[in-house]
Amino acid sequence: MTQDTQTYADFSDRVGESLLQGKVAIVTGAGRGLGRCYALALAAAGAAVVVNDADEASAEEVASSITAEGGQALAVAARIGPLAVAQDLVHQAVSTFGRLDIMVTNAGILRDRVTWKMSEEDFDAVIETHLKGTWTCGRAAVEHMRSQGEGGRLILIGSPAGQFGSFGQSNYAPAKAGIVALGRTWSMELARDGITVNVVVPTAMTAMTATIPVYKEWAEAYEQGVALPQAARQDHALGGPEDVAPLIAWLASDDAQGVTGQAIGLGGDRLTLYSHPGELITADEPGGWSTAGIARAWSERFASHAQPSGMPPKPDPREHPAASESQNSQG
Ligand SMILES: NC(=O)c1ccc[n+]([C@@H]2O[C@H](COP(=O)([O-])OP(=O)(O)OC[C@H]3O[C@@H](n4cnc5c(N)ncnc54)[C@H](O)[C@@H]3O)[C@@H](O)[C@H]2O)c1
């Protein structure tokens, strides 16, 4: 299945058809890629879905493909970022469908450049869309969910870049790491209201991933409908956007009521629970530390625990071409 060809009906096997009956969801950035699959999956599970995208035509296409198959959807073209946009989105969901249960903050852009070549505009645009856009959409949703008094679901979208750090993404990586911190903070603030807050860390072949040079060959193969090899689907947790959607549907469901404050990855065949930052080792110096004391403690006790930056090593995609492995598997 190539990207953006999935339909609402394709998700009925992967998500229970009545899992979200009677619920109302907003998915931001749902005109293509992952967000499109989230909207289709939530609709297939019975939810009425507000399909937001900055690109009006793609939001309309996704909403009409849902309604054409008997689902409920409304397209709202708007650029996520400002609070007023988020409040209008919530208002449109509530005035059209009567309530709001689920907010998926998926809208996102990349403006990659190494820091010393990155413009202030590219830094601001990424922070505005991802970090501020997540905060404004969450804030607007929570205002309504709290007054509704029946709990709710905030499903935020992180990235491996935010979990590990990522060369050339000094705007995107901290925005995504900030979203995980936001998820932890909101999970505490909203526990009493029965509103769960989790961060999904997706990995999938989309227009966004296709720009990553190391994935060029897998992206081309995927675009032509060639199945990705096991090294992609497992070691790189990289499949299609449809592979991630069942996690969104489950977190949105009543079944996941007890799950909050978590960062959960899904991509290809691999489901991952991420750890949160924690204290690795501590040392106490009665009366306080001197610089020389810190230097000694570092070399004697801390240095061996120093943490790496960047993604854990994975098999080289060039050694696992999609075409030859899928031909092998057919033969
Ligand atoms: N694809 C991956 O492997 C991957 C990995 C980690 C995280 N993510 C995250 O998942 C989300 C979706 O990524 P994708 O790969 O589907 O990207 P994509 O580029 O294919 O789709 C993003 C969609 O968001 C829309 N959009 C962008 N800015 C917007 C705004 N301000 N308001 C409304 N809509 C906006 C775009 O028009 C587009 O339709 C993003 O938050 C991304 O950071 C993706």
From TrEMBL:
Gene3D superfamilies: NAD(P)-binding Rossmann-like Domain
Family the UniProt entry places it in: Belongs to the short-chain dehydrogenases/reductases (SDR) family.
Pfam families: adh_short
Sequence segments annotated as region (Disordered): 300-331
Domain Ketoreductase, first and last residues per copy: 23-203
Cited InterPro entries: KR_dom (IPR057326), NAD(P)-bd_dom_sf (IPR036291), Peroxisomal_Beta-Oxidation (IPR051687), SDR_fam (IPR002347)
Highest taxon above the source species: Bacteria
Coiled-coil stretches: none
Name the UniProt record assigns to this protein: SDR family NAD(P)-dependent oxidoreductase
Keywords from the UniProt entry: Oxidoreductase
